Design the sequence.
């Protein structure tokens, strides 16, 4: 995930830009183009958006960038409702969108027009961007003199010249021939992963599954009529993105299957095969899909084992093979799997084939002091654990910030058998206490909000 170290350090889990339950109806149309779309773009991540033609991908980009308004739902920039154009976002279009009567340099300078930079400043920064993107020597050329690949470089330079916090790309390589596209894509990937650009997050629309798998930390597959997120998949660990291998093939096949079976339950299908990003509002929103289970099943793992396991993995180079782990830790396979599942669920580790890898956040979690460790855990737990999120919301809403354990158990019994409901409850209490989200008084049977680490979840998407 942290493929980028911008000027200031990445804040794990921090959401830069979000669409919550967005709906879009064009003009006097009756049918929406987007319905209940929730997408969160986090610090340091590269998201790819795949989906059929007409599923509203470009529309979503335009709404997020502030080029148009949603008909319903919220767009949040750093957690605040967006007003007007978002100056922190730059877009690269498939069509290049260059002005034919302006030179390369002038086209790139255009990106800075809205910033109020002086002429000198604009020129200086434009030349720097031109250099960065491999266009030097072409400053005075006009678009018609350029090949498609060079034209798109101008598109990139014009976007990057503003040093955008977030970069949007709408099928940036699909108008180019295959080799040119691949070449430019590789260069972009290097700029991003080597931190040459200060951009903190990227959202790219593509029709190309391979491209999505090569680049993305997260892959969202859209469905149409109306446009919605069908499923959200974890990208491959960095080391496996560009090379051929079974994990890569598996992910490509899974996405291919999902996209060629538009009416199939994408979440259920993906769950059997690849790492799915634990449900936020994805899928749940889709009117054509069945509602997913209310809460994920939490593996029966205590916090000490969980943190110990992450520490251990960190000590073995951030990865481990299941067989060796089971031997070295002298654990039964199912206990080990529960640990792996828990770290995976929380986004601290990824599982590919028989290997477990710490994610960048997992690695960080292993390295920091206790207070920061807890802060990271708090963020990932709220992000990934729907039950925990639900409890914290209930606590927020309760007048005394206290709720009864009995109520939570009742609720869990809608999804789990009695014994399992109790076990889920114990696990979530263990995790929530460690995260200092709440305290639990066993004698009184009460959960109480921890005021010190209060997280306001009211702006977050509703759970299903
Ligand atoms: N300005 C507009 N006015 C009316 N309808 C529009 C407008 N722009 C797009 N649409 C319609 O909204 C739907 C979604 O369009 P959009 O361009 O967002 O889809 P997309 O997923 O980007 O498709 P593609 O993959 O072909 O680029 C389409 O049915 C399209 O015809
Ligand atoms: Mg489009």
Sequence:
């Amino acid at each position: 995930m942290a493929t980028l170290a911008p000027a200031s350090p990445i804040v794990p889990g921090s959401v830069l830009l979000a669409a919550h339950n967005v709906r879009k109806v064009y003009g006097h149309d009756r049918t929406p183009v987007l319905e209940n779309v929730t997408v969160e773009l986090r610090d340091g991540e590269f998201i790819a958006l795949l989906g059929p033609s007409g599923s509203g991908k470009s529309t979503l980009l335009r709404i997020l960038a502030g080029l148009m308004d949603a008909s319903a739902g919220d767009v949040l920039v750093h957690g605040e409702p967006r007003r007007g154009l978002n100056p922190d976002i730059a877009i690269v279009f498939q069509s290049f969108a260059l002005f034919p009567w302006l030179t390369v340099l002038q086209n790139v300078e255009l990106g800075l027009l809205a910033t109020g930079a002086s002429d000198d400043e604009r020129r200086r920064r434009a030349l720097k961007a031109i250099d960065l993107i491999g266009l030097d020597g072409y400053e005075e050329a006009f678009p018609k003199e350029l090949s498609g690949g060079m034209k798109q470089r101008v598109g990139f330079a014009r976007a990057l010249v503003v040093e955008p916090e977030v970069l949007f790309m709408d099928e940036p390589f699909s108008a180019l021939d295959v080799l040119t596209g691949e070449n430019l894509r590789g260069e972009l990937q290097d700029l991003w992963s080597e931190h040459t650009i200060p951009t903190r997050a990227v959202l790219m629309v593509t029709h190309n599954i391979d491209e999505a798998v090569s680049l993305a930390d997260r892959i969202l597959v859209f469905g149409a009529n109306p446009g919605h997120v069908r499923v959200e998949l974890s990208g491959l660990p960095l080391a496996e993105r560009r090379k051929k291998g079974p994990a890569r093939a598996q992910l490509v096949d899974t996405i291919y299957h999902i996209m060629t079976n538009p009416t199939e339950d994408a979440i259920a299908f993906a769950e059997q095969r690849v790492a799915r990003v634990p449900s936020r509002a994805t899928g749940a929103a889709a009117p054509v899909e069945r509602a997913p289970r209310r809460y994920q099943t939490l593996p029966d793992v205590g916090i000490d084992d969980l943190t110990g396991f992450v520490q251990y993995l960190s000590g073995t180079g951030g990865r481990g093979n299941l067989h060796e782990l089971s031997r070295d830790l002298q654990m039964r396979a199912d206990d080990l799997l529960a640990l792996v599942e828990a770290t995976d669920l929380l986004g601290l580790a990824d599982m590919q084939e028989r290997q477990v890898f710490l994610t960048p956040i997992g690695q960080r979690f292993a390295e920091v002091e206790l207070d920061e460790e807890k802060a990271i855990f708090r963020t990932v737990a709220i992000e990934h654990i729907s039950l925990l999120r639900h409890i914290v919301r209930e606590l927020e809403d309760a007048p005394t910030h206290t709720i009864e354990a009995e109520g939570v158990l009742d609720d869990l019994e809608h999804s789990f058998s009695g014994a399992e409901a109790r076990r889920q409850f114990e696990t979530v209490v263990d995790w929530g206490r460690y995260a200092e989200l709440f305290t639990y008084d066993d004698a009184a049977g009460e959960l109480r909000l921890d005021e010190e680490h209060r997280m306001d979840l009211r702006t977050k998407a509703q759970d299903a």
Notes: The CA atoms of residues 343 and 349 lie 5 Å apart. The chain has 17 helices and 16 strands. The domain at 15-273 is CATH 3.40.50.300 (Rossmann fold).
